[in-house]
Amino acid sequence: MNASRSLDTSKKQNLAEGEQCNGDHEDIISNLPDSILHYILSFLPTKYAVGTSILSQRWKFLWTSIHNFDFCDEHLFCTSSKSINYQKRKWFFIEFVNKVLHCNDVSKIHKFSLKCRECDPAHFPTWVASIMRREIQELSIYASEEYPYMYPHCFSTFESLRVLKIDMDISISITGSVSFPSLKVLHLTSVNFCGGLSLPEVSLRCPILEESVLDCCTCSNIKTFSIYAPTLPMLKIKGGHVYKPTNCVVKIFAERLVSLKLKHSLSYEFSLCELSSLVDVSIDIYGTSGSVHHVASILKGIHNAKNLELSAHSVETLSRPDVSAYFHTLARLTHLKVLDGLTTSGEKLIDLLCNMPYIESLCFPNGTHSFGFKEFGRFGTTPQCFLSHLKLVEIRPFRWYSDEQWFLKFLIKSTRVMHKLIIKVTTRDSFSDKLPGEMSEKQIKELQMLARNSNCVIEFS
């Protein structure tokens, strides 16, 4: 009995002590070392990191030693540009960035991110110059396209830079050779490179680059723009709205490049040099489709590719008679994937396939319904070498339209060694209306019989 009372008394005492401790509100975080607090603050947007200065004297100057900066003027987005408060807050944001960079006392900056939709980029050079001296490692800048601005070649001084991402409508003056010895990631969007009239040849050297995306970038007063990236495994290039062919040549030296994605009007000539490791290529040629010389330059550069993905626009361009002479360079190509798009002539698709005798697999991941065959030609009229190595065809989905049925029969009768044909049938339940070209059970059996006579197997899935 006494033992029970003693235990109850002990529990009450422990509970009282716990309540007393909770009442003291001990600040555990503030007792952490400065290095840990700096690390915590580095994950916050800069305006919140600076905001911690009002917590206590302990936090007042901690933000002045952080190594990561994340500035964003998003607080302006929902405010009318005609508002007085809008203009005041716009000015406050500029002053805020100026003050933070002035008061920060670190010798090295790890990350600097700047996102501005309303702030005039004319202030950017001052901010960039402020971080240039601090061995910055990652730099990311985004701004609205409303304020194009000419930049000097200031980015070339970032020897410590590992990540560079610029998304804004600007012109960067570049002369001679620019080197980024430490750069591993390069993303450029809407950047215009301007060369000097006296030196129209420029080069960009990134000896350890691992990832690169060039989106809507252009060149002015540059005849030859060379990019040296010997360690780069993947490159994406997307063109803008420049359709008229120019005299600019973009040379890419990337001996370890494995994957290339090119979506462009070919207004520039792309000279792909020393791409000995290239395996996967995706091409989407649009607009005026460039000159024959520009198209031929691409085909010569991707001669080592094994897998090729083409858009419907590219089929239109590459099937031209003046281009077909250059297809002999694609002797290693074994896998072809053709994407769906606007209505394209089925005749041009067949003309393209006639120039690819070595492919072993042919894939239509979006089906073939956008290709209008209209019973082009007659069965058996293709060259003897037509798809002579083809073994596998995938059409998914297959919608049973008359053009698709004709193309399917055409493949079965025209190929020589194909032993398997895979078709993924889209059921009628996937459509609101009945398919006008849907095959009857009798027609399906006839198709299977035709396949058996041609040493083919059709799989419906």
Automatic annotation (TrEMBL):
- Out of the domains of life, which is the source? Eukaryota
Task: Kindly name one Pfam family recorded for this protein.
Answer: FBD
Q: Which InterPro entries match?
A: F-box-like_dom_sf (IPR036047), F-box_AtFBL13-like (IPR053781), F-box_dom (IPR001810), FBD (IPR006566), FBL13/AtMIF1-like (IPR050232), LRR_dom_sf (IPR032675)
**Domain annotation FBD: ranges:** 384-461
- Residues of the signal peptide: none
Q: What is this protein called?
A: FBD domain-containing protein
Give the species this sequence originates from: Aquilegia coerulea
Per the UniProt record, the lineage of the source organism begins with: Eukaryota, Viridiplantae, Streptophyta, Embryophyta, Tracheophyta
